[in-house]
Amino acid sequence: MTATKISQQIPLRGSARDTVITPPVLLAPLAGITDLPFRRVVARFGAGLVVSEMVASQEMVQAKQSMRARARSELGLGEARTAVQIAGRDPHWMAQAARMIEDGGAEVIDINMGCPAKKVVGGMSGSALMREPDHALRLIDAVVGAVSVPVTLKTRLGWDDDCLNAAQLVQRAAASGVRMVTIHGRTRCQFYKGQANWRAIGDVVRATDIPVIANGDILCADTARKALSQSGAAGVMVGRGAQGRPWVLAQIAADLFGQKQPDIPTGPALVDLVAAHYEDMLAFYGTALGMKVARKHLGWYSDHVQGCAALRRAVQTSPDPAHVLRLLPDALCPAPQLGRAA
Fold first, then answer.
1. What positions carry a catalytic annotation?
2. Which residues pair with 84 in a beta bridge?
3. Per residue in 10-42, pLDDT tens?
């Protein structure tokens, strides 16, 4: 299978509201990373869909009104081409959270059944549900029945090598009304070790008529092309590959699906992008927390620039936002190193 045979659009039907994903290149939900400021940067370059960080359903519903209002703001529910991912164990709370999120303006609701984190699995949510497909289907039924927007699912190949049941779970989820599924090409017990098995995702593709999105180790157009070829998936989801490169989804969409090539910022244009992202994080979180959150993003941006290590450390550790902004031009536009005369 080649990428040229894949549709540039994935239509998702809801019971009363539909949406279209175009191009079929999606931003993965990453805890502590894909917050609203970062999703905005990625979306401006071009992505078919960006997915929020995972929301614990019961905690969101039972939170104080002020906390729920802040959560809705942080999720960016009114933002275009945004899916909100929810997790939980109880059908009642999952349905309630889905209704709240839909009422806030989300276009798509995604159910997390793939998170491998011990805290999530210990609460019998995330990928722990791969071991309980009957209960997983009760959660899916509750969410699909609660909202009119399309509902999607994100999961893994299975719990471990002895429980590779993604294809069966997806068949049942599709029958319950799930409109698209994203498969991370590892089991839960692999966490993020080894290589994602894109060929195994093909077993899910062949088992269902709903669109399947390939996820795991997709870092650039070349890896996206291989993932599509080996899996036969309808699109790709990018996670870590977007760190420090929010334009990479647009690059993949251009190379594989004929979209317009993005203008990849370098020099002063990169400085402007990073400065704007930095200031957005400060405004979003408040100065003190925003500076802490920004450190990892500043580090990832710096990874792609051959600059001075000491200057990089200063950008990441300075306690003064104005000082950080003054350092960015030198940190991201290092002077060329002149060779010694013969």
1. 115
2. 109
3. 989 887 788 999 999 999 999 889 999 999 999
